[in-house]
Amino acid sequence: MYVFDLDTVELPFHIWCLSCNERIGQGVRFNAEKRQVGQYYTTPIWLFRCKCPSCKSYFAIQTDPAHTRYVIESGAREQLQDWNPEEHGGFPIHDPEAPSEDGAFSLLERKKTQQQDGAKRQARIEELEEHNRGRWADPYTRNAEMRRAFRADRKARLERAARDANLRERIGWSDDLPLVGESSTDLNLSTPVVRRDFYEARAKRPKPARLAPAFSRAQRAPQLSTAGRRLAGQLLAPGYAKR
């Protein structure tokens, strides 16, 4: 019989129970039996004995101070993951074979990377300084160009403000509500442009062909007999009157 303490332990990774083959997820907490099973230099090695919630069988995990991680002692097996849990909101897995960031080679590589980055930044700074010197070689000319551009922009802003005020007055638009600026679509749909496009399209439209009469007036006139022509002459005479 051995002496143990009760402590709350949280699974550091996903495991499979060897008794019922049920999966227990990372982060599940257990009231575990805690006892010391060894020592790594001056650091104690702790073993946690937990009960599976499905089959009530026991499994044990213990600390591994040499590699700063947990290992399964018995009753379960770790779920192997071929993806990076950090990309899915999980915790990173310790790789004991990965080079330490505090080692001499890591410090040398980090120093070399910093030197390369510093050289790139210095080249960019010199490029910006050269560009600035080229633009401000003649301060008077540069200042005149800026003032000219500002005056043109101010004139355009004043004209736009006057047009907006006129539009607000015509349509009864409140001064508190903003007006949307003009766009290329609005200019293409304005009344003068639409009217011009309409007349141009109508001028390009082919005119309908007028058909010539199939028969002339003389051919369409009925052929009268001699008596009929005599009667027609009497009826059309100016002095003829009905009796």
UniProtKB/TrEMBL annotation:
Annotated Gene Ontology cellular component terms: post-mRNA release spliceosomal complex; U2-type spliceosomal complex
Biological processes per GO annotation: mRNA splicing, via spliceosome
InterPro entries reported for this sequence: Saf4/Yju2 (IPR007590)
Domain of life: Eukaryota
Region listing for Disordered, in residue ranges: 205-229
Pfam families referenced in this protein's UniProt entry, alphabetically: Saf4_Yju2
PANTHER family linked to this entry: SPLICING FACTOR YJU2 (PTHR12111), SPLICING FACTOR YJU2B-RELATED (PTHR12111:SF2)
Sequence similarity: Belongs to the CWC16 family.
Record-given protein name: Protein saf4
Source organism: Malassezia brasiliensis
Gene name of the record: saf4
